[in-house]
Amino acid sequence: MSDIKKVAVVGGGTMGNGIAHVFAISGFQVKLVETSRELADKALNTIGKNLTRMVTKEKISEKDKEEALLRIQPELNLTEAVKDVDLVVEAVPEHFKLKKKIFAEIDEHAPEHTILATNTSSISITKLAAVTDRSNRFIGMHFFNPVPVMKLVEVIRGLDTGDEVIQAIIEISEKLGKVPVQANDSPGFVSNRVLMPMINEAIYCVYEGVAEPKAVDDVMKLGMAHPMGPLRLADFVGLDVCLDVLNVLYDGFKDPKYRPCPLLVKMVDAGKLGDKTGEGFFKYD
Ligand code: 3HC
After folding, report:
1. pTM summary value
2. Number of folded domains in the chain?
3. How many angstroms does the Cα of residue 146 sit away from the middle of ligand 1?
4. What DSSP string describes the chain?
């Protein structure tokens, strides 16, 4: 199924612009769908900066960068964007109602053969697939931040996902230079089921006065060789995203071990969401 050539990426935020970046640099035509000209420009600007970073590191040439940028076509109209693509990767914020609305529109206007993939970090693939009339062509394609750097694509099979669709997404992930790893649909899949309780426990250490944020992170960096400590990583991912995922785990398993730490809830309420707001467990310029 290597006949996927045209791709639409819906959402140009942190994950969406990274996903568009890796498709474009791997030779795919990409439509990057955003809701306003400003947001589309912001996404393209970020992609340009990250491609320049790769040129500086001599991973790609200036020509590769220019060609990749030319392959990305910004689109403000979702219906138009999906009408002739082979694959749609959705990367909008983690709200079921928003994704439901978007997938209903995509399903109506995308060609029959088009595979619909979601980059959701925890919402049920089966539940999202049920919004469409093609649950057999619906799949989870979960990238990791920063997308141009992280090797993993978690490939998640919904209840009805066809074997040929799994195979196509595995092949395309490899073409992007990524390593696909398969998981079945379950709250948090594998990645966030393991990662988020660790982050939550690190927050409890601060909440209960066991250690300061820097000390918690130093323990995990120096003792366990994590590239970022769990609190730095929580800020990087976004504390709102961490809370959303923990709530999905808590609701999905009905198990108190996933209860989000009250300090995390308080920080989200205060608008301290990490890197994107300039402050979380640490401060950023
Ligand atoms: N685009 C392109 N290249 C980038 C980049 C980007 N956005 N960000 C970093 N890089 C490159 C740098 O150019 C550098 O390249 P080099 O190896 O050739 O020198 C390399 O990545 C490392 O970057 P830096 O030297 O600037 O910084 P670090 O060595 O501190 O690494 C990091 C940064 C790669 C982010 C590292 O700290 C790391 O791996 N952190 C953990 C990230 C992680 O766990 N991500 C998963 C989050 S969970 C998730 O996304 C799932 C969701 O569902 C919640």
Report:
1. 0.95
2. 2
3. 5
4. -TT--EEEEE--SHHHHHHHHHHHHTT-EEEEE-SSHHHHHHHHHHHHHHHHHHHHTTSS-HHHHHHHHHHEEEES-HHHHHTT-SEEEE---S-HHHHHHHHHHHHHHS-TT-EEEE--SSS-HHHHHTTSS-GGGEEEEE--SSTTT--EEEEEE-TT--HHHHHHHHHHHHHTT-EEEEEES-TTTTHHHHHHHHHHHHHHHHHTTSS-HHHHHHHHHHHH--SS-HHHHHHHH-HHHHHHHHHHHHHHH--GGGPPPHHHHHHHHTT--BGGGTBSSSB--
